[in-house]
């Protein structure tokens, strides 16, 4: 096909270039949206450290926070503004956002140049210039842009989940570390008491005031106390290092880390959870992620129906010059013929991916309600148990020890009775520390369930 119309008819390609420039990178928008999601759920601000100055400021903030015993809120702030692991996730999400932006852009137009010389006459030259663009990509641009918008929306939610999971990990690590510190200090006190009791038992046996059986019992108590102390020290080191990793502290920062002596006091009562739990269930991030994934796959499914059958449609303008002949202009059109691949497999795959995501979203909705109920029940049971230790068992044991001490002073109780009470008191206090720790961990687990930070895997691969 030839024509004398000017090559300016390739204005279609120019329009394609203009359309390609309309898709701006959404990384900053995603970070801002994730900030809004996190703060709306009571989380602190997080920092994306993209400059040396920002990294230096984060290190200064950490150094200032470590000048005093680290509170739970301070630990979460450090994790969200300093942890290299979180920074890696933020950069990964930024890369995924850029990929989503790229997926909505048109491919560049193709310019072709051809020069042919006649073998019989070197002066006979033919020059061909062509510029082509994918018309199919232009036609599908709105659908691809809609799919990219769905991907960006999913990435914003995933980014918020990443940040809140980092905060949850820091919170749990802090609870474990503080409880382990407290348990170790108490184990050291029990060990000192056991050492003194063992020495006293040996002296009393030598004086004939203790039997070999009584002395052996105190020696066994000493051995058990030393084993408990070794285990407490090992647990304390492990919990502390877990916290160091969750916060992203280096060796110098880890050496400066100090923790409070006790966990926060138990709340007197827990709020009724029915209405709040339903509201939390409706706003769970994992359910919103599943819905965003469904929207993304729905657009991918529509694209597969079209592009699976006609996977190419290129139009272009061509200009040809021959020695001694008038210039020729024309348009070109190329279409792949669906002879060997009709696109049925691609359409079937897109349909299956959508159906799988739909089933996964349904399963997640069922699991979410169950998970929230279980987490709430666990939190309430742990709270009741911790209150029982704090308000009843520990005070009663202290009363028993005090009363027996009075009896001992009046020569109505033996040293053996006092040591037996000390052993029982040590057991109860250790259980009370563990019960308080378990409540705060259960509370963190409930908050994570309410936010939708479950470990249920969600397919977040790019829609194809």
UniProtKB/TrEMBL annotation:
UniProt-listed InterPro entries: MdtP/NodT-like
Signal sequence region: 1-23
PROSITE patterns referenced in this protein's UniProt entry, alphabetically: PROKAR_LIPOPROTEIN
Protein name as it appears in the record: TolC family protein
Keyword Cell inner membrane set for record: no
Keywords annotated in UniProt: Signal
GO molecular function: efflux transmembrane transporter activity
Organism name: Scleromatobacter humisilvae
Record keyword Signal present: yes
